[in-house]
Structures are given as structure tokens and as C-alpha cells.
Amino acid sequence: MTVGAFPPEQRAGVYRAIVARRDIRNFRPDPLPDEVLGRLLEAAHHAPSVGLMQPWDFILLRDLDVRRAIYEHFRAVNERAAEVHQGTQRHLPRTEAARDPRCPAQPADHL
Known about the structure:
about 45% helix; mainly alpha; disordered C terminus
């Protein structure tokens, strides 16, 4: 085995995670346990970046009213931006939730 190489079972786990990866657009309403959130933030802080600088800053918003207000601002700005685009580009800056009138507050429930 090459020095610094991962054992075969760990490499298989990485490949499995890459192949099985999927986008999540529907989120659970219950908050993440603090230990899970901590592990996710720790992993995110080590995510690759240009020059290995890891310039990440995260803001944890637990207040539902604040999250909804931020979402509504984001949605309104994206709607205005979409108005200046022509043809198929018109839909690029929008999110799926912003286009779906049935769930205007859904993403804010889970930010």
C-alpha cells in the first residue's frame, strides 16, 4: 500500500458516497442534534478550496422568523434578477422552491 493511502474499505466508502450522492430539496422539520451539526460543520471547514485556504464562515440561524425573513428576501431578489434574463436563462437564478407556489416558506423551515 502507498504511504498515506487509505485502506481499500475506506476507499470503497468514498466511492460509494460519491456515486450515491443526491440533491436534497425536502428537509425534515426537526433540528439536527448538536453533535451532528458539529460534525458537519467540522467537515465543511475542511472542504477543499483554492490554495487550501478554507475561507469558510458559517452562521447558524435557529430563529424561525429570522430564517423565513432571509428566505423571503432571497426569493424576492432572485425573482427580480430573473426578470432581466431572456429565454431559458430567465429560470437559472431561481430555486425550485421559489418556482413552486405550494411551498413558499419550505426552505426557510430548514435553513
